[in-house]
């Protein structure tokens, strides 16, 4: 029974962590200025790894259109 409880707890933790890690544009745009800066994007490793590629115009921020190209 303890093994089952531990397994269920681990599954719940993993699924909640995955949901937390998934960021959308509005969540990352903390200051609400309509763009995501590098410092705002830093909380999402996936977005940070793509930031330079996504920032098509090279202005150092991601617009919602640029962000939508994230894989």
From TrEMBL:
SUPFAM superfamilies tied to this protein: EF-hand
Domain of life: Bacteria
Domain spans labelled EF-hand: 42-71
GO terms of molecular function: calcium ion binding
Keywords linked to the UniProt accession: Signal
A Pfam family of this chain: EF-hand_5
Signal peptide: 1-21
Name by which UniProt lists this protein: Calmodulin
High-level lineage: Bacteria, Pseudomonadati, Pseudomonadota, Gammaproteobacteria, Alteromonadales
């Amino acid at each position: 029974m303890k093994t089952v409880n531990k397994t269920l707890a681990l599954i719940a933790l993993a699924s909640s962590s995955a949901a937390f890690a998934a960021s959308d544009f509005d969540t990352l745009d903390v200051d609400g200025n309509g763009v995501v800066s590098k410092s705002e994007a830093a909380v999402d490793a996936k977005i940070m790894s793509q930031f330079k590629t996504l920032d098509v115009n090279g202005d150092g921020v991601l617009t919602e259109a640029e962000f939508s190209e994230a894989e």
